[in-house]
Amino acid sequence: MAAGLRLAGIALLGIVTASLASWLIDRIRDVEEESEIATRRDIAGLTAEGRAHRDEVGLMRNREPLTFTVILDFAGSRKKECPKWLPVQVQDQLTGGLRKRQD
Fold first, then answer.
1. In the chain, how long is the greatest CA-to-CA distance?
2. Staple partner for 74: which of 48, 63, 94, 97, CB 3.0–4.6 Å?
3. Is the separation of the CB atoms in 75 and 95 below 8 Å?
4. What is the DSSP letter of 101?
């Protein structure tokens, strides 16, 4: 009788442990599925953003350079100054290298 009771206790403990493990695995699987969905959504968003940047760069490459009249507007001024937002190399080209240097 004692051996049967001991065997039933061990079997019951095994069933409870298996049920707990199954429940934990289901919870982890649900979290992983939600995480995978979020990751796929993020990847799709980043891919779309990358394509938009690529298209924008393509448009920028196809733009015409500064026209001669714009260059004359900057370089032909008596002050020989360019807007500060222009890159230094462009400022030097437009002012003939007369840009004030900050040393």
1. 112
2. 94
3. yes
4. P
Chain-centroid distance of CA 10 in Å reads 53
Looking at residue 77, the DSSP 8-state letter turns out to be S
Query: Considering the domain boundaries, does residue 90 fall inside one?
Result: yes
Q: How many domains is the chain built from?
A: 1
Domain carrying residue 87: 65-97
Residue 56 host element (H or E): helix 2-62
**Would you say 16 and 24 are in contact if contact means Cβ atoms under 8 Å apart?**
no
What is the rounded CA–CA span in Å between residue 103 and residue 92? 16
According to DSSP, residue 63 is labeled S
pTM over 0.90: no
pLDDT tens, 25-68? 999 999 999 999 999 999 999 999 988 888 888 777 776 555 44
